[in-house]
Protein: Luciferase-like protein
Organism: Dictyobacter formicarum
Amino acid sequence: MKFGLAIPNCHGDFADIHLVSEVAYEAEQAGWDGLFVWDHIGDKWGDEVLDPWVMLSAMAMRTRTVRLGTMVTPVTRRRPWKLAREVATLDHLSNGRMILGVGSGGGIEYVNYHEPGDAKTYGERMDEALELLSLLWNGERISYAGQYYQIENVRHLPRPIQQPRIPIWVGGVWPNKKPMRRAAQWDGVCPIGKGVGMTEQMTPEQAHACFDYVRSQQSPEQVTEDYACVQWGILDGKDRGHDAALVSVYAEVGANWWIENLSWERGSLQELRPFIHQGPPVHS
């Protein structure tokens, strides 16, 4: 099991770039394996919002070994070619540590900014965008004519350090099947449960059903490859034995990444620092 932290890019001192970069350093020293940031541009949680790519750049400069990524980026809110450049540049800045978490997004971040599309087409647009990302990262000269995106005679260099591509983890709400079928075709799945709040998590039974379904949608070749099954988790932080036992239950049902869901509902980032300093409950 690998252990990561998901850090909001909004609300209170989670939007303090200096504090976030310092906490990133402390988290690596404490033994966490990954640091992931939310990707919001303006939402129901308030006006204090940091840009996730600047956050990740600051975190990359303060760390050396932890994986870095978004959890998750609403791909259809961004131009795929700009996103490809940003993530590839971060892969170089971090010496090959980037992971791109993606989702279809929606809500007021689309409506209030008059973003094109609707809930029915976000998934279709996302599929094209992910295909484009993979093509642009291979460093070859390409043209692409999709329903939603078109480019002509384009080449992106330098290629990311990670090949054949930067890992793409797909988020979605379980038990919705369509995003899970999409996730099966990429490098990882990071589900959230329908109706599960920010201080709650999917049960082991729900996680097992989700991971089994994703695996059932993969080819025999895909099943043998490394694949991230993420539990978006909540640890108590007070009883290390209890936390270790809880993690083992999720490991038994297929989770191989535990990403701790930090949020202001559990306290400010400053208040959560002692929890972060403890590190994971078991060694990865």
Strands lie at 2-7, 34-37, 67-74, 98-103, 142-145, 150-154, 168-174, 188-193, 228-233, 257-261. Residues 9 and 52 are 6 Å apart (CA to CA).
